[in-house]
Amino acid sequence: MEKITVGMTIRLINDIDRKMPVGSTATIVYIDDFDTVFIDWTDGGQGRFTEDQIINNFEIPQMIA
After folding, report:
1. 61 with 8: CB under 8 angstroms?
2. Is 64 a domain residue?
3. How far, in Å, CA of 27 to CA of 44, rounded?
4. DSSP string over 1-65
5. How many domains does the chain have?
6. Does residue 4 belong to any structural domain of this protein?
7. 21: domain CATH number?
8. What is the tens place of the pLDDT at every residue in 35-53?
């Protein structure tokens, strides 16, 4: 499983809320103690998803060492 960290840019690969089109990008801005992930969409707005929703519906870049 990929490690999700604050500052990552992720890309939507599945239509999960019908608000943002597939292919939209976002930056992870906060992860709370309950593994809720808060994001800022690149073209405006904010979102909140569970860690499982992020893993299953977003493309997560590989960590570059």
Report:
1. yes
2. no
3. 11
4. -PPP-TT-EEEE-S-SSSSS-TT-EEEEEEE-TT-EEEEEETTS-EEEEEHHHHHHHEE-PPPP-
5. 1
6. no
7. 2.30.30
8. 999 999 999 999 999 999 9
In a domain, 48, yes or no: yes
- CB count within 10 Å of CB 10 equals 22
Q: Which residues of the chain have pLDDT under 50?
A: 1, 63-65
Within a domain: 2:
no
Tokens found for residue 3: 């490690």
Prediction pTM value = 0.85
Sequence letter at residue 56: N
